[in-house]
Amino acid sequence: MTQKAIVTDLNRCVGCLACSVACKLINGVEPGNFWNKTLRIGPNPKEEGSGVWPDVEMYFLMVQCQHCKNPECVAVCPTQASTKQADGTVQIDKAKCIGCQFCVMACPYGVRYLNKEEKVVEKCTLCSQRTAEGELPQCVSQCCGQARYFGDLDKGIESFVGPRGEIAGEFLLPWDASDVHTLPDVGNAPSMRYILRDRKWQGEL
């Protein structure tokens, strides 16, 4: 089995938006739409503290197609335009897409949209045009905080590779299972992983 995915160390992310901008540039995503959004979570009061600065915490959260193991967007597509690939990614065949937007409505993360000019649905492809050539997704390669890593989830996130070729398990600060999170799982099994240490996870979108 293979499940390509991205893991993001949220303790390292500085919210520079380089991943979002790089994604739009390389994929030609038109203004007003995003394949990769960077959200600010907080500042929120720490569980123990006054709730007044400096007793607050925040982090940045990247939201994109989660390339789910059991994608509902694939299940509802009437033309089989959306498919689960051998590498674990979810892709859209624009030649088959009729723009019905069933998949848009089925996605629990709101990361698909209708390209009104082409009348087809678009979303993050995990830069399949790059990864097929052995390169990293553009959002990973352009991460100046060295927070994003790409690899095969079935081999463990410690083996994921970062923007400068660094290995997550060797470069990042230690983490344990309680530090690893996903966006809400409603039976679709999202594949993207987020590492967050010493802060309260608030990824319930």
Question: How would you explain this protein's 3D organization?
Answer:
The strands form four sheets. Strands 8-1-10-9 form a four-stranded mixed beta sheet. Strands 2-3 form a two-stranded antiparallel sheet. Strands 4-5 form a two-stranded antiparallel ribbon. With 205 residues, the chain is α+β, with helices and mostly antiparallel strands. The chain is built from six helices and ten strands, in the order E-H-E-E-H-E-E-H-E-E-H-H-E-H-E-E. The model has no long low-confidence stretch (mean pLDDT 95).
Task: Summarize this structure as a short list of keywords or feature phrases.
single chain; 205 residues; alpha+beta; four-stranded mixed sheet; two-stranded antiparallel sheet; 6 helices; globular
Strand order of the largest sheet: 8-1-10-9
Mean pLDDT: 95
Strand content is 15-25%
Quickly count the helices: 6
List the helices and strands and how they pair.
Blueprint: E1 4-9, H1 18-27, E2 36-45, E3 56-64, H2 72-76, E4 82-84, E5 90-92, H3 102-106, E6 113-115, E7 120-122, H4 128-131, H5 138-141, E8 148-152, H6 168-171, E9 180-181, E10 193-195
Parallel strand pairs: 1-10
Antiparallel strand pairs: 1-8, 2-3, 4-5, 6-7, 9-10
